[in-house]
Design a protein that fits this description.
- The complex is a heterodimer of chains A (176) and B (398).
- With 176 residues, chain A is an all-alpha fold.
- Chain A contains seven helices and no strands.
- Chain A has two domains: 86 residues, Rna Polymerase Sigma Factor, Chain: A; 88 residues, Arc Repressor Mutant, subunit A.
- With 398 residues, chain B is of the alpha+beta class.
- Chain B folds into two domains: 242 residues, no CATH class; 99 residues, no CATH class.
- Chain B has ten helices and 18 strands.
- The chains are: A mainly alpha (176), B alpha+beta (398).
- At the A-B interface, helix 1, helix 2, helix 3, helix 4 and helix 5 of A face helix 1, helix 2, helix 7, strand 14 and strand 16 of B.
Chain lengths: 176, 398
């Protein structure tokens, strides 16, 4: 990827990759660092991005690899400095459909916030496929390649994740 | 109140990207990428401005200091580049002074010296995870015009017209893959008295000192595979006599007692993984992940007969799926209490060729993780356009 392709990729996939980076790190500063380094790494690797390669999937795999390498560093940093954490308050919310009443809109926001929190609390083996599937909307095959897992394993992890989330959220909603 | 949540749309809504990265962040990325692109073109490690000023001063007043040796000594080159750590390193007993010249075309190249070790300089670079590259080899070379005319000063535009690539090479390792670029190299450079001095640094190659090492200097900004020949059988690296350009090749005389075959092996493994496994990882079919030892690919390819022989049909899970309004087929099932299960939406055009009926070549292997049994999903297209989903449990993992 050269600088010209980089500009196109940022325009086209920047929002998705930024969301993925935010979900991985749950910290604005780290998300911005990861987002920046993902694109710079893609340029450094100089791999040609062509129509045969899914750029979203390619960028996601770079982001995931950098993030995994850095987890220890982030853990260390979080012990020495408080950084702005992406909480439900400062996390962006979905723009509500106009036909929703204000009450429904608030309820929907709350439910979505609970969904995001529940996903964030999943084990990594379930959480990452969920982000790749629902945030980046990658097909199972691509997710399998990124995670180096058979497609069936990706499917069963997604299935398990949905099941765990459903259990978790139904308990939360029953209590409200 | 009992809730019955449909997780799929809920997850899509909650996890869809909502926030744009800010413009300043994107501008920073583009600016840095452009800067990196320029730097890569020159393979250029920036010399601190103070060192450039010092170089200009020395150009006027230091002729007498080099009279005893035709060239600046490695220690003196480090001094010009204001590298206190390397001055000491080149004064130490670990430094190896060479002073050997080769002449090709219009250039005379001289290998002046080499030193290796940990934390030898205050200008340590960091890797992408922020860890300092502490253990390094530093090689000092001099390049001059063979006709005696001075090399252009670094402040002159013509300085960038001719570029050279200096790299330690290791016998037995393909120089296309193991050179200054891949071994995290960089360089600092100055022109003194019309001679272009360069300190090239790479990861410490002393660990390979039980085999021959070389120092190559070729025309251009990167390693040029046309300039040298690598014999994969013997591991030897030689000059290509037909090459039109500079292709100097020196023996790099490192201390064999510093060799560390274990560290060398680990380094090769690490570099191979970091640099050369990208394509393989990205494009390879996945054959691991199910940890019961037998090949997932093999199971994907099982015929109906092989399925009958090697797996048990879980009849309770067989479902006949009807297409929805969009022509897709949705399903979901659970197996036992261990959480193994599958759900999804099938599409005819993905699973079957035009006009095909019977069992699809596409199968999914489910489970098989952490001692779980492995299961195989199959899909059979019936004449009435329904799909029969069958689930088999593999016998070897049961």
């Amino acid at each position: 990827m050269d600088v010209r392709q980089l500009e196109q990729c940022i325009q086209e996939y920047g929002k998705d990759i930024y969301a993925f980076c935010s979900q991985l790190t749950r910290n604005r500063q780290e998300a911005e660092e990861l987002y920046q380094d993902t694109f710079l790494k893609a340029v450094e690797m100089r791999e040609k991005i062509d129509s045969g390669k899914n750029p979203r999937s390619y960028l996601a795999s770079i982001a995931l690899r950098i993030w995994k390498n850095r987890k220890r560093k982030y853990a260390w940093r979080s012990r020495i400095a408080r950084t702005e954490e992406l909480t439900e308050e400062n996390m962006p919310h979905t723009a509500c459909a106009q036909e929703l009443s204000p009450e429904e809109s608030v309820l929907q926001k709350e439910l979505q916030a609970q969904v995001r929190a529940a996903v964030a609390n999943l084990e990594e083996r379930y959480r990452i496929p969920v982000y790749l599937y629902y945030t980046l909307q990658l097909p199972i095959g691509q997710i399998g390649k990124i995670l180096r897992l058979p497609q069936g394993t990706v499917k069963s992890r997604l299935h398990k994740a949905r099941k765990l989330l459903k259990q978790e959220l139904e308990v939360v909603l029953d209590e409200t | 109140m009992k809730h019955n949540l449909d997780m799929d749309p809920l997850l899509r809504q909650a996890l869809s990207p909502k926030e744009e990265p800010n413009d300043q962040l994107n501008r920073n990325i583009l600016w840095k990428a452009k800067e990196t692109e320029e730097m890569n073109k020159k393979y250029f490690k920036r010399i601190p401005a103070t060192a450039i000023i010092a170089a200009a001063v020395l150009l006027v007043g230091s002729v007498s200091t080099v009279a005893a040796w035709r060239y600046l000594t490695p220690e003196k080159v480090a001094e010009v580049l204001e590298d206190e750590g390397l001055i000491k390193a080149f004064q130490s007993k670990d430094a190896i002074l060479v002073n050997e010249s080769q002449e090709y075309g219009n250039y005379k190249i001289t290998l002046l010296g080499v030193v290796s070790g940990k934390n030898l300089t205050q200008y340590l670079s960091a890797d992408e995870t922020g860890n300092l590259r502490e253990d390094r080899t530093y090689v000092v070379t001099a390049i001059e015009n063979a006709d005696g005319t001075p090399r252009p000063a670094i402040s002159e535009e013509s300085y960038l017209e001719e570029s050279f690539f200096v790299s330690p090479l290791i016998e037995g390792l393909d120089p296309n893959r193991y050179n200054s670029v891949t071994m995290n190299g960089g360089y600092s450079e100055t022109v003194q008295n019309g001679v272009q001095y360069r300190i090239t640094e790479v990861d410490n190659v002393e660990i390979f000192a039980d085999r021959p090492l070389y120092l190559s200097v070729n025309s251009g900004t990167f390693y040029d595979s046309q300039a040298y020949q690598f014999d994969a059988a013997s591991g030897k690296i030689t000059r290509n006599e037909e090459y039109e350009g500079i292709n100097a090749l020196f023996a790099l005389p490192l201390d064999a007692s510093k060799a560390d075959p274990d560290a060398a092996g680990a380094y090769i493994q690490k570099l191979e993984k970091e640099l050369f496994s990208e394509d393989e990882e990205g494009d390879a079919d996945v054959s691991d992940g199910a940890d019961d030892g037998s090949s997932v690919l093999e199971r994907h390819n099982w015929t109906e007969e092989e399925l009958e022989k090697n797996a048990v049909l879980l009849e309770d899970l067989t479902q006949v799926l009807q297409p929805d309004a969009q022509g897709n087929y949705s399903y979901s099932y659970e197996i036992g209490e261990d959480g193994v299960g599958s759900s999804g939406t099938l599409s005819l055009d993905v699973l079957f060729e035009d006009g095909q009926t019977g069992m699809s070549d596409h199968k999914f292997v489910i489970g098989g993780e952490e001692g779980q049994a492995a299961y195989i999903e199959t899909y059979t297209l019936n004449e009435d356009k329904t799909i029969t989903l069958k689930v088999y449990q593999c016998k070897d993992a049961a």
